[in-house]
Amino acid sequence: MLTNKNLFFLIIQAQIGIGILGLPYILYNHVQQDGWMSLLIAGVLAQGIIIILVALSRSSPKETFYELNHRLLGNFLAKIVNILYVLYFISFSMLLMILVTDVINTWILHQTPRWAIILMLLIATSYIAKEQIVTISRAFLFFSFLFIVLIFLLILVYPQDIHFGRLQPVGSNSFTDIVKASPDAFVSLIGFELILFIMPYIKNPKTSLKVLSFANLFSLTLYIFLFITCVISFSGVQFSLIHEPLLYLFRGMSFQFVERIDIIFLSFWIVPISTTLVIQLFNASLGVQNIFSFQRKKSVYILAIILLCLGLFPISFSMKESLSSIMIYLNIIFVFIFPALLLIIAKLKGIKG
């Protein structure tokens, strides 16, 4: 069973991944130094949705989301909704793979074909995703030491050429523009929806809301700290040209016996990036298991093959941008709107945990 500690690190590993590299650039291009406000709004929105998801999960704590759908919607509608969720997780996984392979191609393996990187990524993530959630949580707990490394490296940036004046003027963008930028920040906080699928495995479901709230607060604080660090380290002109500002920060660092901190960091950071993909595969495999009555391990392998086949298709920059934009709306639909409607149905039917 999942303890509070396991659950905490499971959620932050699900939330923090590839977004930590590109989110500062995206927010700065939208609302400049006010991006931290968009992050705050996204964090509040995420907390509200967490309350809804936990309430829905507690309505039947011994069932996963896919099983609960059959009680709430009937077999026919439940199967349709479950298929849609599997397709959503496949789409999310596809976008993650594209983003990860682009970063690896750009910074580390310049000549390696995309399919080879995707194959290695899927082998590693499938190996973890096929395990039970308790085993996955223990692996994530071990991987979490990399957050300490990240925070330590960010602190080392501060003695360098930084200017806190770049954070001003505060609120120079309109409130409307700040709110419009918050969906991009919200995408980077996605991961807490995992609670819908693991409630039966939690040792103390009554404390799940508190644990998820602290995990969300940790992820939000880390993202804000990262954004502020990037803003005070780069000028506006530099920021508009740097897609992965965090890596450029580390690129400028060197020690007596160590150089290219950016490459060393990225080599390790591929692990936390991959954990987000592990969660998506886990969620989708539960759906495939429920729909087709396959073993979950077999479901993971089937999903990995599908993703590998999708990864063989050439992806242009415009296609990647379009998929990223579509995923913003899909996240809102599948993480917020559907669960909120199901919670209302559960209340109307009087289903309680």
3D structure, described in words:
It is built from 16 helices and no strands. It is mainly α and 353 residues long. Helix 3 (35-58) crosses helix 16 (317-349) and helix 5 (75-107) packs across helix 15. The radius of gyration is 20 Å and the shape is globular. The model has no long low-confidence stretch (mean pLDDT 86).
Evaluate the radius of gyration. 20 Å
Q: Residue ranges: pLDDT <50 for 5 or more in a row?
A: none
Provide the CATH top-level class: Mainly Alpha
Portion in strands: under 5%
Provide mean pLDDT, rounded. Answer: 86
Can you name the CATH architecture? Up-down Bundle
Biggest sheet architecture? none
Which of globular, elongated, flat, extended, rod-shaped describes the shape?
Answer: globular
Number-wise, the strands total 0
Ends distance = 18 Å
Q: Determine the CATH topology.
A: Amino acid/polyamine transporter I
Q: Could you give me the name of the CATH homologous superfamily? A: Amino acid/polyamine transporter I
Count of individual domains: 1
Helix content: over 70%
Q: Secondary-structure element order, as H and E?
A: HHHHHHHHHHHHHHHH
Subcellular location: Membrane
Family: Belongs to the amino acid-polyamine-organocation (APC) superfamily. Spore germination protein (SGP) (TC 2.A.3.9) family.
GO cellular component, one term: membrane
InterPro entries: Spore_GerAB (IPR004761)
